[in-house]
Amino acid sequence: AILAMPNTEPVVDSAAVLGALIERARSDAVVPTGFMAAISKDQSGEELSEMAELASAGAAAFTDDGRPVESAGLMRRALQYSALAGRPLALHCEEPTLSRGGHAHEGRVSAEIGLGPYPSTAESLMVERDLALAAAEERPLHLMHLSARESVDALRRARDAGVTATAEVTPHHLCLTDEAVRSLDPNFKMNPPLRSEDDRRTLIDALRDGTITVIATDHAPHARHEKEVPFEDAPFGVIGLETAFAALHTLLVLPGELTLEVLLERMSAGPARVFGIPEPVVEVGARANLVALDLEAEWEVTEDGFRSLSANSWLLGTTLSGRVVRTIADGREVFVA
Ligand SMILES: [Zn+2]
């Protein structure tokens, strides 16, 4: 299954827009596709969307992804309304007054190559604020694409104190550090930015011990012309959907940093639990949702190898081990390599 984000044109902030997308997915999508709706109208952070109405129209969750919910008051009301809507909030945590002008993790690399710094605290302060609000409102929340040790520490403390908080991490934050930014290749420009080796190791540990239960791609397509500009002018974001498994298998499982079992769980049952989707089971009589993997297959990531309309991948030119050779979605075979 795929959950799509609402930061599109138009923003998914009304039952009409959401309904049209759900219809289109029903006729065109080959794997079950759900949609998150915006927390605030037009994702402008000023006024809450009609969350209850959007939930009855089929919203899987709520997020203003692409930008943070800056106002603590609005965030608090969103938590309260999410209880009525019965859907989780998925949060992009960024304190904009700290990230403004930032293009790379604040550290040695950004200093040496002279890129505007985006400090870890720009993420972790917002994580702490949102966890404090969730604790006070006794509401669950889901933290998207964590990148910094400080954020993971805050999440651990909140979970130990009984807050129902879940979190996800991207393949690029698990596999790369800000050293990759030295190339000034805009396909290494993400929000949040690639951070240090210490941060990367913390994210892997959290994935292993279940503090983080979801791997999500933060798939962000950009046209070639948007990324063919100097690093500082390029937009944030990379694609990751088609390479997620192979990248993590090649760069984490084969070197022994993560087991195949944990990787598969965090890409399937883990996310399903957070969003209230039935966990996939392989069972006689059940509708099959599964992929067949060839773990030995080697393939090179090339610009023309994507089904996605864009090719802004950090893996271009890389040879990966492991490939999806067959996909059965909702009982139907929808892909054969
Ligand atoms: Zn985001």
Brief summary:
This protein is an alpha/beta fold and 337 residues long.
Give an overview in words.
The protein has 337 residues and is of the alpha/beta class. It has a domain at 93-267: TIM Barrel (Alpha-Beta Barrel), CATH 3.20.20. Helix content is 35%, strand content 16%. The chain contains 13 helices and twelve strands. It has a four-stranded parallel β-sheet. Helix 3 crosses helix 6, helix 6 runs parallel beside helix 7 and helix 11 packs antiparallel against helix 12 (260-267). It is globular. The two termini are 19 Å apart. The model has no long low-confidence stretch (mean pLDDT 96). Bound molecules: zinc ion.
Please summarize the sheet with the most strands.
Answer: 4 strands, parallel
Which ligands are bound? zinc ion
The radius of gyration is 19 Å
Structural class call reads: alpha/beta
Largest beta sheet: strand ordering: 4-7-8-9
What's the total number of strands? 12
Strand content: 15-25%
Average pLDDT reading: 96
Q: List unreliable stretches of 5+ residues.
A: none
**CATH homology superfamily of the domain at 93-267:** Metal-dependent hydrolases
**CATH architecture assignment of the domain at 93-267:** Alpha-Beta Barrel
The outline comes out as globular
Count of runs of 4 or more consecutive helical residues: 13
Fraction in helix: 25-40%
Q: SSE string, helix = H, strand = E?
A: EHEHEHEHEHEHEHEHHEHHHHEEE
CATH fold assignment of the domain at 93-267: TIM Barrel
The end-to-end span amounts to 19 Å
CATH class descriptor name of the domain at 93-267:
Alpha Beta
